[in-house]
Amino acid sequence: MRKKVCREANMKEKSIVKRAGVLLFAVLMIVSTATVMAKSNTQPTATDNDVWLGYTGDSPQLLRGDVWVGYDDGEPEKIIGSNAPPLFIAIRLSPDELAPYDGLQFLATTWYCAVYNASIPNHNYDMKIWEGNETAPITMLLNESDVAQGEGWANHTIAAPITINAAKNYWIMIKCYAFPAGTYNDYPLGYDTNNYVPGKSDWYHNNNYPETGFYELSGTSIGNGSWCLRVKVEVPAPALEIASLTGGFGIKAGIKNAGDAAATNVDWNITLNGGLIILGKLSEGTIASITAGATEQVKSKFILGFGKTVVTVNALCDEGSYATKSTNATVFLVFVLGIK
């Protein structure tokens, strides 16, 4: 009895496969003359989240995702020093510039430390943030010490982030100590000559002045410009991820926004590469918005094909967050199997 059941089951399987083959051949005959055109998926190129204040050219003005706010273009054309260290440099951020960030936080600072003299590779510095007016810092909010090691940007994370009140002026200051104290051959401060914002971008003094006694370098022999000095601002942003991917009759994917701001105009696509995919090689669409913490489900078109393939899901929103996930699968007629 058992042998008979097994034989019957095998005969049924063979019959199903035979019918499937006939169906596949018939569909091939129908669609063999059709031309399928699909828009290719392009992964976005990553860019630094910089806001270059005062620029009127091609500065990236990104208001989502943590940003480095400053007046420089990222490249120092000059380096500056003094024979009366320590050296004090500052930029002033005004209420107009801080309006988009009201209620958010200062997270970190960075400044460009140059090594002019190889015997002086490192510099101690104090990172300070003050509230003030248009001409001077008044109330100190932060004073933390750190070391800039070698040439390049010296990043400092603020231990207790500062909440921004956009009605205030904030002075971002670095107090730099040369080694040894009083040296005449040390020029550690990066200076950008491509952009100058009066009253904001190039405040300076050395140890001959009181700590809050800043003046502007503009109009001096050094010329107009800005310090390579920035502050990092926390900005809520979406963060897309492919939370789920399943097969069966077509392909389903869950697109999650794991960030802390809505993702808008989320373009998505599902592609199959490899095997004989007759229908459904590309499915795409747009989700108007995915709120923070939410997941939206998307589904492929009708799929018809045969063989091993690679399933890829991509999602990209207007705010620049991008997510992708790929997995191997097998297409058997209208079913997609083996997705893990």
List keywords for this structure.
mainly beta; 47% strand; disordered N terminus; 6-stranded antiparallel sheet; Jelly Rolls; 340 residues; 7-stranded antiparallel sheet
Describe the structure.
The protein is mainly β. It is built from two helices and 24 strands. The longest helix is centred in the N-terminal third of the chain and has 30 residues. The N terminus is likely disordered.
From the 3D structure, determine the CATH topology of the largest domain: Jelly Rolls
The unreliable regions are: 1-48, 56-64
Strand content: over 45%
The helix-strand sequence is HEEEEHEEEEEEEEEEEEEEEEEEEE
| CATH arch. level architecture of the largest domain | Sandwich
The biggest beta sheet reads: 7 strands, antiparallel
Query: How many individual β-strands?
Result: 24
The CATH class assignment of the largest domain is: Mainly Beta
**What is the CA-atom radius of gyration, in angstroms?**
30 Å
Helical proportion, percent range:
10-25%
In whole angstroms, the N-to-C terminal distance is 38 Å
| CATH homologous superfamily assignment of the largest domain | PHR domain
Number of helices: 2
3D shape: elongated
Structural class: mainly beta
The figure for the number of domains is 2
Residue-averaged pLDDT: 82
